[in-house]
């Protein structure tokens, strides 16, 4: 794993949370994106090399909606950038980690992603991210 790619924060309302984080971080939201497969709207902010992803549920049955219901707004996951997502997935599986998806899937911000089950990581949901390179 190369670095923390971003920290994901579950929020109830992007229209209220984006201005709050823009003020807090003294930066503008550089991108919003709907990830239909995950039933989530996202907003990204960057300060220096650090990125924050705000996540708003678009469906009451989505994982983010369930997270918000159970835990409230707050840190949802930590994402790490990797050079080779498939190799990293194999390495973690060989080490006994449970992956929440068997194959990489398209995530937000031009990334292929895979999640590691939080029961194997002391309760922290870990996302592995690899930039999609267009040829």
Q: How does this structure look, described?
A:
The chain has 135 residues and is of the alpha+beta class. The protein has one domain: Roll (2,3-Dihydroxybiphenyl 1,2-Dioxygenase, domain 1), CATH 3.10.180.10. Helices cover 23% and strands 39% of the residues. The protein contains 3 helices and 8 strands. It has an 8-stranded mixed β-sheet. The mean pLDDT is 95.
Query: Whole-number average pLDDT?
Result: 95
Q: What's the N-to-C terminus distance?
A: 24 Å
- Count of helical regions: 3
pLDDT < 50 runs, ≥5 residues = none
- The CATH topology name reads 2,3-Dihydroxybiphenyl 1,2-Dioxygenase, domain 1
Residues in helix, %:
10-25%
Annotation, overall tally of beta strands: 8
CATH superfamily: 2,3-Dihydroxybiphenyl 1,2-Dioxygenase, domain 1
Please compute the radius of gyration using only Cα atoms. 15 Å
CATH architecture assignment name: Roll
Q: Which class best fits the helix and strand makeup?
A: alpha+beta
H-E order: EHEEEHEHEEE
Which strand order do you get reading across the main beta sheet? 2-3-4-1-5-8-7-6
CATH class: Alpha Beta
* Morphology call: globular
Beta-strand proportion = 35-45%
Q: Describe the biggest sheet? A: 8 strands, mixed
Total of domains: 1
């Amino acid at each position: 794993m190369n670095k923390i790619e971003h920290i994901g924060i579950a929020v109830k309302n992007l229209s209220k949370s984006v201005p709050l984080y823009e003020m807090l971080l003294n930066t503008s939201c550089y991108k919003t994106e709907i990830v239909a497969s995950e039933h989530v709207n996202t907003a990204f902010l960057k300060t220096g090399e650090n990125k924050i992803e705000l996540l708003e549920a678009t469906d009451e049955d989505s994982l983010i909606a369930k997270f918000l219901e159970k835990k409230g707004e707050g840190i949802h996951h930590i994402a790490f950038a990797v050079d080779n997502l498939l190799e990293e997935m194999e390495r973690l599986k060989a080490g006994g980690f449970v992956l929440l998806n068997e194959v990489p899937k398209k995530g937000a911000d031009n990334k292929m992603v895979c999640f590691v089950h939080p029961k194997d990581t002391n309760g922290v949901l870990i996302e592995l991210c690899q930039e999609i390179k267009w040829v």
